[in-house]
Amino acid sequence: MVERGYRIAQGEEDIPVAMGDERGMTRMLLECSLSDKLCVIQEKQYEVIIVPTFLVTIFLILLGVILWLFMREQRTQQQHPGPREKCQKTAPRWPERKLLKELPCQFVSGSAFRESPGQGKTDIAPVPPSRDLSWEAAGCGGNVALPLKETSVENFLGSTTPALAKLEVPREQLSEVLEQICNGSCGPIFRASMNTGDPSKPKSVILKALKEPAGLHEVQDFLGRVQFHQYLGKHKNLVQLEGCCTEKLPLYMVLEDVAHGDLLSFLWTCRRDVMTMNDLPYDLTEKQVYHIGEQVLLALFGNLKHSAEMCDSFACFGSDMPLLEFLQDKHLFHGDVAARNILIQSDLTAKLCGLGLAYEVYTRGAISSQTIPLKWLAPERLLLRPAGIKADVYSIMKSCWHWHEAGRPSPRELRLCLEAAVRTADDKAVLQVPELVVPELYAAVAGIRVESLFYNYSIL
Ligand SMILES: Nc1ncnc2c1ncn2[C@@H]1O[C@H](COP(=O)(O)OP(=O)(O)OP(=O)(O)O)[C@@H](O)[C@H]1O
């Protein structure tokens, strides 16, 4: 309230004592007698205080609402770590491959682990992944709603199942980290050297580490993933689990090393002017490109047993069960078949990795928050319809992008298509795009934000 006093000449204005005027102002005659020529008037202007008070109140309410929404969002993000970020490459894979000698020991032996707040005691063994479980996993450790009593991670790891103990690889065997490949959905992924007992024959393996610091849920989820791999078992076109280091932190999943790494990085390297290196051919001809396509198809669908005329279904493959059928047999589908999840072996045959989505579907029975680049999704997946095996077909571009499921080629047709292409393709000219890719231009053409492009385009 603003008050001001002033003097006014008697007779100049007819001033009521202590009354409000139309401007929300109250005037009070303070000192005045009939003989006075001048009177002292006190004037109180209410609007000067009411309007700002009103505005400040609204501002405070809005601020409170915004803060509340922000905190709620933060809490939700802690429970659901958001859309899964696919492997973020941390270093160029080829040709600038080099040994990162400084990484190994610090990573293989030390632990910067901190417990999540509120973790107490109880012995609970990790629960083997099962379709009946009431827990959820979105990304690594996301939204795992387990009936856990409070327990410390050390206790938890100390009570791992015998099944996991069987897979345990002594840490001393992991002698040297050769390079960090990328940051995977659970943590960094390394290429490391493993002692085989024969010093002249060290073996290269892939280590998937759980990022640190990690809470109990992340640890439990990571163990669930290891067990999921174990449950999948062996298939020649599936990346194989060699073991794990899970008796203490940091945790590792040990996988076979597939020599050429993922198809996407491989193809990007081939784009550049890189010739054969370490016996890996990067100067691909058109024929080799089709050959790789055929290998990918073989990896997913297996060998055709019967002649093309007789066979047009998944049952018509050879004695090795095709990978997708193998997964389907276990009530799984991969759901994320894309070049970044196809690993290329030295003989250019293919294997599948990136089983995070399959794990999620297996444990939750549905896909939750994980995001996959739209370009790789079948229309029925875009429409959130139940995904079937045809949604896993790796593209022969347009024909596989037919909107209607029935319009897409069958495995046999794809195979015939690729076989024909291999027969007729140019086997001389090396396919290379010598120009440098300008990320801004690329992003504009691809219709994506340039920030979402990693410098080696691994998101594509
Ligand atoms: N066995 C392997 N051999 C060679 N490279 C591999 C292997 N496994 C993974 N990689 C590399 O790491 C990248 C990420 O692998 P992957 O998608 O399996 O990890 P992730 O982020 O943990 O995914 P997910 O949660 O789906 O398992 C691959 O694109 C590939 O470059």
- Percentage of residues in strands: 5-15%
Q: What is the CA-atom radius of gyration, in angstroms?
A: 33 Å
Please summarize the sheet with the most strands. 6 strands, antiparallel
Kindly state the percentage of residues in helix: 25-40%
Strand order of the largest sheet: 5-6-7-8-10-9
Question: What is the arithmetic mean of pLDDT?
Answer: 69
Q: How many helical elements?
A: 12
From the spread of the alpha carbons, the general shape counts as elongated
State the end-to-end distance.
63 Å
Report the order of strands and helices.
EEEEHEHHHEEEHEEHHHEEHHHH
Commentary on this structure:
30% of the residues lie in helices and 15% in strands. By secondary structure, it is α+β, with helices and mostly antiparallel strands. The chain has three domains: 1-79, no CATH class; 96-257, Phosphorylase Kinase, domain 1 (2-Layer Sandwich); 259-460, Transferase(Phosphotransferase), domain 1. Bound molecules: adenosine-5'-triphosphate. Residues 87, 181-182, 184-186, 189, 206, 208, 239, 255-258, 261-262, 265, 340-341, 343, 353-356 line the site of adenosine-5'-triphosphate.
Kindly summarize this structure in a few lines:
By secondary structure, this protein is of the alpha+beta class. The chain folds into three domains: 1-79, no CATH class; 96-257, Phosphorylase Kinase, domain 1; 259-460, Transferase(Phosphotransferase), domain 1 (Orthogonal Bundle), CATH 1.10.510. The protein has helices at residues 46-79, 104-109, 153-158, 162-167, 216-232, 263-271, 286-301, 323-329, 356-364, 379-382, 411-424, 439-446, and strands at residues 2-9, 19-20, 25-31, 38-45, 88-89, 174-183, 188-194, 203-209, 241-245, 252-256, 342-344, 350-352.
